[in-house]
Amino acid sequence: xxxxxxxxxxxxxxxxxxxxxxxxxxxxxxxxxxxxxxxxxxxxxxxxxxxxxxxxxxxxxxxxxxxxxxxxxxxxxxxxxxxxxxxxxxxxxxxxxxxxxxxxxxxxxxxxxxxxxxxxxxxxxxxxxxxxxxxxxxxxxxxxxxxxxxxxxxxxxxxxxxxxxxxxxxxxxxxxxxxxxxxxxxxxxxxxxxxxxxxxxxxxxxxxxxxxxxxxxxxxxxxxxxxxxxxxxxxxxxxxxxxxxxxxxxxxxxxxxxxxxxxxxxxxxxxxxxxxxxxxxxxxxxxxxxxxxxxxxxxxxxxxxxxxxxxx
Length: 312
Known about the structure:
- The chain starts with a helix and ends in a 5-residue tail after the last helix.
- The protein has helices at about 5-10, 25-35, 60-70, 95-105, 120-130, 145-155, 160-175, 185-190, 195-205, 215-225, 245-255, 275-285, 295-305; strands at about 15-20, 45, 60, 115, 135-140, 180-185, 260.
- It has one domain: Rossmann fold.
- The protein has a five-stranded mixed beta sheet. A two-stranded antiparallel ribbon has the order 2-3.
- By secondary structure, the chain is α/β, with parallel strands linked by helices.
- Helix content is about 50%, strand content about 10%.
- The longest helix has 18 residues, at about 160-175.
């Protein structure tokens, strides 16, 4: 690559993909990064809804494309399929690479961008085959039981279902992001100390080559408008009797991650909880309006596992 092209790419800066489970704070983090200087998708492609009146800050066309990818493999955002290794190059997905690139370019015609869609936690390997240059991942973490309470309110999903979703989305994110630069941001810290957290985010992104130089005060103000100020919760999945050992290990791993990882490698990630694998396989047989059945399914699995001498 010649020197001129290298300089132009450096001046342009890197793009950002915001990843995290649904209801973990990815919308507000995407908006913060947008206010710090990176453009969102085209205005006519922005998705909004009654559950997030200030905006999801995500591309409607890319949400639909991600939904299509998940459907091809027999699932959806609420009933995610198990994706085998190298699934993005398997026959069902491989023919869509060219179309995916075109859809993404239409949604994000500019060279720099910030993209948020929780479904991308599951489909990230596909998009890595599409992007010409690797983006920086901003991984948003939130207490799983708070995510459950939010999803219960919005979608009526049961506790076991939500925790299983959180585990699969989070594991998929960490596995799919291997080799990429990652910045971790805590929803809890964002709520407790917004200005400092936003300032740290801007500094971390700048250090990784992202051009985010706008005023942090403006970006910080959107947090109080969107989230309504600080709140204290005492819910902790790792202390919950329904948590699995694998889930507790995953939480510990997330907490131990550095704020910034220039070349991310997820070590000691372990395997998905057997209860999560079985539950998500089972609930895909039910239509979304019957998703509360997952609560009963979970109890059944726990009784069955106990009878087999397994620890869930």
